[in-house]
Amino acid sequence: MRHARWSKSARGPIGIQPWPANGASQRHRSSKEGTSLTLVCRSRARGNPWSNGRTLDPRFRGDDTGHKCRLVLGRKSWFVCLAALLLAACASPQERSAAPGAEPQRIVSLDYCADQYVLRFAERDAILALSPYAGERFSYMRAEAEGLPTVRPRTADVLALQPDLVVRSFGGGADVVPFLEELGVPVIQIGFPQTIAEVREEVIRIGSALGAGDEARQAAADMDRRLAALPAPPEKRRTALYMTPGGMTSGEGTLVHEILRTAGLANFQDRPGWNTLPLERLAYEHPDVVAAAFYEGVESQAEIWSAARHPVARAQLENRPVVPLEGAWTSCGGWFLIDAIEALSQAAQGERP
């Protein structure tokens, strides 16, 4: 699986030091398990906005290099996983998964994007555990997560709970889905929508899969209503630079680009995908507006350097109109991105943020 142990010294979206640029392998051992647990990772370019950052907080993720990891288990860890597997194997099929047509009663969410859908559309009594980040500031449904148990997205920990449904976006690593399904545990895989229309479809699909089809369609209809109420974009669109404390920005082919365009703005970033801030260009050309995301609570990470701390980048925040975007609005693809669109729409019309 992709997650071994979260730590303050963690690097990358999965809590470990990324592989070097030349692709040479590195092994990382969990301090909790001594030499019994080793993560082996490979990097792969895939335009991942959260990759190669300096902390797990998505406000401070770095460039667009993805990472793929596999778990190499030592003797002690094999015993832990074997025990969990035996627990799952000893359970009857009815205990391991919900009966056909029955609503799941033991739902586990593996990451904070999955948390949002589970908290919105699943019955609270049916939620067995959420991810460790369900209550963080960048989690839109953090208030609803209060009081619910959490679990780390590790196979042994998840299987020990004997869930009858697992929901994930990126949590647990790519191999976790076939592994859990092989043991009879159904998995709902949340996609990675790149357009507003795809977000809408995903809301209906995931909500229906969680037994709340009517509420999901209502959420999609609410998105439609709010989008229809937006003012028409001006004939000449103002340019907006999306900016995070991690020094990231976003161009064409991303959901953030769609958010800016839907709000009536033109994206200042002219390179597709996720990239670091274009510092050289910003030295002689400036956006009309800065869309500053994930900046709430940024003072707690003052020791971390990124391109956003360069004087040229900081000048954009000081000298240009800034639209503050809550990290929870753009951290995942969901119905809540409409909040970001509405905030940006005011700036598109020339209104002061």
Taken together, the total number of domains comes to 4
Order of strands across the biggest sheet? Answer: 5-4-6-7
Largest pleated sheet: 4 strands, parallel
Structural class estimated from helices and strands = alpha/beta
Q: CATH H level of the largest domain: which superfamily?
A: Nitrogenase molybdenum iron protein domain
* Total of helices: 13
Distance between the termini: 43 Å
Low-pLDDT residue intervals, each spanning 5 or more residues: 1-80, 88-98
Q: On the 0-100 scale, what is the average pLDDT?
A: 77
N-to-C series of helices and strands: EEEHHEHEHHEHEHHEEHEEHEHEHH
Shape: globular
CATH overall fold name of the largest domain: Rossmann fold
Helix amount: 25-40%
Strand element count: 13
User: Hey, roughly how much beta strand do the residues contain?
Assistant: 15-25%
Protein name: ABC transporter substrate-binding protein
Organism: Pelagerythrobacter rhizovicinus
Domain Fe/B12 periplasmic-binding: 106-352
Pfam family, one: Peripla_BP_2
Please give the structural blueprint.
Elements: E1 27-29, E2 37-45, E3 65-73, H1 75-90, H2 93-96, E4 107-109, H3 112-121, E5 127-129, H4 142-145, H5 155-160, E6 165-168, H6 176-182, E7 187-189, H7 196-209, H8 213-228, E8 239-243, E9 248-250, H9 255-262, E10 266-267, E11 274-276, H10 279-282, E12 289-293, H11 311-319, E13 322-325, H12 327-330, H13 337-348
Parallel strand pairs: 4-5, 4-6, 6-7, 8-10, 8-12, 12-13
Antiparallel strand pairs: 1-2, 2-3, 9-11
Helix pairs in contact: 3-7, 7-8
